[in-house]
Amino acid sequence: MSLRIRAMAFLPGSSVSRETRIYPAALTVERHRPRLRPRQRPRAARAAICVLLAALALSPAPAQGDADPASDVLLTQNVFTPYNPVVSANLVKALDTLSSETQRMGLPIKVAIVATATDLGGVPGLFNQPQRYSDFLASEIAFNGKQLVLVVMPAGIGTTNIPHAQALAGLRPDTSHGSDGLARTAITAIVRLANANGHPIKAPSIRGGSGSGGGVSPVIAFGAPVILVVLAAGLAGLARRQRGEEEHTEADEEQGKEEEKPA
Amino acid sequence: MHLELFARGHVVAIPAGVGVAPPERRRGAYVVAGHCSYPLRTLEPTGVIEVRARALFKLGDFFAIWRQPLSRHQLAGFRVSPRTPVRAYVGGRRWRRDIRLIPLARHAQIVLEAGPYVPPHPSYGFPPGL
User: Fold this and answer.
1) Which of A118, A153, A135 is nearest to A64 (CA)?
2) pLDDT tens for residues A194-222?
3) Which of B4, B127, B128 comes nearest A67 by C-beta?
């Protein structure tokens, strides 16, 4: 008996193929008429079982769900950043550059930065459980083999399948600058991991972007409304004073006219 | 609302840009602008479908805009046998009527499965502003 295994990939429509998402391979088994001598059968059967077991072991695990946005974004991108507060554009750019660089060096790390439970969509229960979520995410995006995953949450850092992850020992997420702080922690973590894996890399220089999300400095965010209120109050005061003076002059003029009239 | 699709036990992606007319502008995996858009659209590949306020649409409308088939026996490009039809869950509960008639209500969580059972999520944490 001979056994042949063929792999197929599904692309269910043009819209889907635009996203370059590749569907997990399905295995079809084609059986042919047995032509072997009887004594060869046990060996062939054993080989067939081995091939089948290997194929099953290599086939992707069934889905547990698709409710976390990071698993969808990381299929085509290397970095997932929080919805709110958003990470400053220059930090996102630095993260993208850094992850592309490490990918070129043979260390393709998928990074998920999770600032709030909303960033986890339908699995909010995994918020602030970086290691559990890292393992979960790695299993979700493991269509084409093992994925190296780094998760940064306010409570800590999680890694899956990344060699020399002990290089992150002692690294605590920067929670004082919102999403930007977490992004900076991710940058530090990637640099440490690359160095530990024999790919010396320097942290990119980041201009500004120290605000907590959106790239707007707290001085501007809080100072601008105060300045506007003070300006508005000043203008209103000026207008009131001007109106008062006009009323005074009109009253004086009227009084003067009355005085001119004979009693 | 949020939509999850499973076929033969695996995730089927809903791409960003459904209902957005080209030329579309992208930032990473997200569509940030387009020529114009339908009242039903996706701007991210996460399954979040934006529905214009006060618009009454059904799941069949979304698949029509996406140009993918949806019936009891077909989910996008995946056909199932008549004995095991496509199953739908709304908020974690089984929907037994025509799946094309599922209303696209605000913050609804809809799961469609063609093939093995995948435990459906009853809810979804939507990004701010939706």
Assistant:
1) A135
2) 999 999 888 887 765 544 444 444 445 55
3) B4
CA angle A123-A158-A169, nearest 5°?
160
CA distance B101 to chain A (A): 22
Q: Which residues contact A231 (CB under 8 A, 6 or more apart)?
A: none
Write down the domain spans for chain A.
3-58, 69-196
Task: Classify residue B95: in a domain, yes or no.
Answer: yes
B40 domain residue, yes or no: yes
Give the residue carrying structure tokens 């081995």. Answer: A50
**How many angstroms away from the CA of B28 is the closest CA of chain A?**
7
CA distance A128 to A185: 15
E-strand ranges in B23-83 read: 25-27, 30-33, 40-41, 50-51, 70-71, 74-75, 78-79
> What interface predicted TM-score (ipTM) does this complex get?
0.86
* Domain membership flag for residue B30: yes
Host domain of residue B96: 2-114
Residue of A nearest to B75 (CA): A12
Mean pLDDT is lowest, of A133-142, A195-204, A217-226, B31-40, for: A217-226
With respect to CATH, is domain A69-196 assigned 1.20.1250.20?
no
B116 and A CB contact within 8 Å:
yes
B23 upstream amide cis, omega within 30 of 0: yes
Size of interface A-B (CB pairs under 8 A): 114
With CA atoms as reference, the chain B residue closest to A20 would be B15
Spatial distance between the Cα atoms of B121 and B124, rounded to a whole number of angstroms = 7
Contact B13 A21 (CB under 8 A): yes
Taking only the tens place, the pLDDT of each residue in A18-42 is 333 333 333 323 333 334 455 555 5
Query: Whole-model pTM above 0.80?
Result: no
Q: Are B124 and A16 inside 8 Å of each other by CB?
A: no
